[in-house]
Amino acid sequence: MNTTAAGFVIAIDQGTTSSRSIVFDHQYAIHSQAQVELEQFFPHSGWVEQDPDEIWQTTLATARQSMHQGNLRADQLCALGISNQRETTIVWNRASGKPVYNAIVWQDRRTAQYCNQRRQDGAQATVTAKTGLLLDAYFSASKIAWILDNVSGARAAAERGELAFGTVDSWLIWNLTAGAVHATDVTNASRTMLYNIHRQGWDSELLELFNVPRSMLPEVLDCNGFFGYTSASLLGGAVKICGVAGDQQAAAMGQACFTKGMLKATYGTGCFALLNTGDTAVESQHQLLTTVAARLDGKISYALEGSIFIAGAAIQWLRDGLRIIQSAEQSTAEALASDPDQAVYLVPAFTGLGAPWWDPEARAAIFGLSLATGRSEIVRAALESVCYQTLDLLKAMHADWQTTSETVLRVDGGMAVNDWTMQFLADVLQAPIDRPVITETSALGAAWLAASHAGLWPTSADFAGAWQCQQRFTPAMTPERRKVKVAGWDAAIGRVRGLA
Ligand code: ADP
């Protein structure tokens, strides 16, 4: 490999709130990057949409900008990787390349009733057995059905084979290759609710259940497979697309969680934790999701996944809703100033509770207020709530799947910069917390997939060896105090669920 001629890899990180591109050099370091915000539309209560053309144009713009900033030509990029917001659904016309409707974003709840109906019909067990998912509006299948049933002429066109469905990765690959390739990777496929994660193929029974024509579906490839070349006119030359994964799986790879028992949690708006369970697809008894962690060179690995809806969003609410802090950073100073003896609990069930409770009716509450309680105690309770929720997830994971290896949690995302919270997390989990030097883990994971295919970053062992811990937080709280604090949280959660 001649690294001077083609010693860089470009990672596209297409997220819910922004499109980004990051160029990494051959030593895994960030060379240049660009980011553009993405508009979200809320046409009705519970609906969330994006413009597919804007998703594509912002992505292309950031790719060009990151190359320009890094002073790079296309022939210096040996590979392109993609990490993307998962489940978001796009349907387009194969001939014109035009979307037939806006992208329906993963958060969109318009098909909740439709999914309830399917559950009442008894479809949950089949769906879970085949896909590892819960029958929920969150995943792509019911969103595709909605488009086919509500966009004039769409179902007939789909049945004639004229329409294509894709998650955001497929849509980007289609556009990057000027319509030559309609493909996805196995991690994205595993979030559609149409893909059998055990047999590893689109499932006829599920396609029938959701009434989706097979002709719409992309080809499913390995995460480090060869997807095609970018159309030469886009980036000033053809670049090989050879790494694709959904954002949370990409983040787990960026955290080098390659082996069984390794665990990462990403703390952004919400929190997503993934536990690598190796070649075993563990069926959860605690409402966690079973999902594909990766398929590399034909070898599949699985993960247990838990999602918390509100993590950093609780801090945003303190800032923008309650207006008791000016910035997210101020939360640290408030927590430090708070009275540690006040047992104040904030259960941030603003949009219901995610894993392991899946209680859509629960609503947020603050408990334990006294006349001595002030802003600082409430802010601290919000930060603590993220840690207690992680504890509940990890308890569920360990109940579903026993491992003998010591739990170390690798963290990333906007909230992971908060030292106070990471220390409290270590205290509550009674486990070490490792924060890496590069916290852009989704982009790094996509870059790793592509660069390993291209031979720039050859092995997962080398990559894992190069993963660097920026700071480790180790448990410091006494077991007695922890026990009391956790018992208080358990009671608070019980009362919020009781409220529903
Ligand atoms: P997303 O990718 O979901 O948009 P990010 O990973 O960019 O989220 O993280 C943003 C979130 O992190 C926000 O909800 C914000 O409140 C939270 N956050 C950022 N900095 C801090 C901080 N210092 N302390 C606590 N929370 C923070």
Bound molecules: adenosine-5'-diphosphate
Shape: globular
The DSSP helix count reads 18
Q: If you average the pLDDT, what whole number results?
A: 93
Structural class: alpha+beta
Strand content: 15-25%
Oligomer: single chain
Assign the CATH topology of the domain at 8-246. Answer: Nucleotidyltransferase, domain 5
Q: Main sheet, how many strands, which sense, barrel? A: 7 strands, mixed
**Could you state the CATH homologous superfamily of the domain at 8-246?**
ATPase, nucleotide binding domain
Explain this structure.
The protein is α+β, with helices and mostly antiparallel strands. The chain has a domain of 239 residues: ATPase, nucleotide binding domain (Nucleotidyltransferase, domain 5). The protein has a 7-stranded mixed sheet. A hairpin with a 2-residue loop joins strand 17 and strand 18. The longest helix is centred in the last third of the chain and has 26 residues. The model has no long low-confidence stretch (mean pLDDT 93). Adenosine-5'-diphosphate binds next to helix 12.
Offer a few descriptive terms.
500 residues, 7-stranded mixed β-sheet, alpha+beta, 6-stranded mixed β-sheet, 37% helix, 18 helices, globular, Nucleotidyltransferase, domain 5, binds adenosine-5'-diphosphate
Please render the helix and strand layout as text.
Blueprint: H1 3-6, E1 8-14, E2 18-24, E3 30-37, E4 49-50, H2 52-69, E5 77-84, E6 90-93, E7 103-104, H3 112-120, H4 124-131, H5 140-150, H6 154-159, E8 163-166, H7 168-176, E9 183-185, H8 186-189, E10 195-196, E11 201-202, H9 204-209, E12 219-221, E13 228-229, H10 232-235, E14 240-246, H11 247-254, E15 263-267, E16 271-276, E17 289-296, E18 299-308, H12 312-321, H13 330-337, E19 345-347, E20 365-367, H14 375-400, E21 409-412, H15 419-429, E22 433-436, H16 441-454, H17 460-466, E23 469-473, H18 479-499
Parallel strand pairs: 1-5, 5-14, 9-12, 15-21, 21-22
Antiparallel strand pairs: 1-2, 2-3, 4-7, 6-8, 10-11, 13-14, 15-16, 16-18, 17-18, 19-20, 22-23
Bound molecules: adenosine-5'-diphosphate (ADP).
